[in-house]
Amino acid sequence: MTRTSLRRSTLSLLVLAAASILPLSGCFPLMAGGAAVTASVASDRRTTGAIVDDEGIEWKVSDKIARQLGDRVHISVTSYNRIVLLTGEAPREENRALAERLARETENVRDVVNEIQIASPSSLGSRMNDANITAQVKARFVNQSQGAFAPNHVKVVTENGVVYLMGLVTRREADAATQIARTTSGVRKVVRVFEYIPEEEARRLDRQGAEPKAPPKNGP
């Protein structure tokens, strides 16, 4: 079985697992259709293990923060290649520090970038505006005329008008994505949380993601 086939099979199992758990707990977000998930995973530069870990890390850290801090804070947890980005608001410095400690103590977390602001939780209107900015940035990534980078290689998170960009990218790709994000309406600032890789490594990872699926075996 090729690396791509293994990744597709693993994520298919994850989709089924999440679907079976969702009606019971309500803790998992609704996932995209199988075809969309397969296409995204096949071209992802992360390993299958990292993708699986990122999903688990986000859920575990969010659950820990909710249990410890409740509605006193508004903290979003984003994990990419096992690096955790914490964004949002907390009323006290000790709340901010606790959220970071909970994230760092979580299994498989490599590092934590703490961007939590000391402030009251943001309003619903502010969060809706952030969601709109994220959608605009992603749309502009897709519609870029130069094709400087693949849109699914850059993860976009927005908090209070500040756009955070994550991903395994080259310096050239990072610069192109940053330029698009910073010129999007409503964006106050862009923070790069990228992991940088050489151009040769990027091409190697992309070739692996483009490997054709192995043909099915005949017989038992």
From TrEMBL:
Transmembrane residue ranges: none
Protein origin, superkingdom: Bacteria
Annotated keywords: Signal
UniProt cross-references to InterPro entries, sorted A to Z: BON_dom, Lipoprotein_DolP, Transpt-assoc_nodulatn_dom_bac
UniProt signal peptide: 1-32
PROSITE patterns referenced in this protein's UniProt entry, alphabetically: BON
Keyword Signal in annotation: yes
Name of the protein: BON domain-containing protein
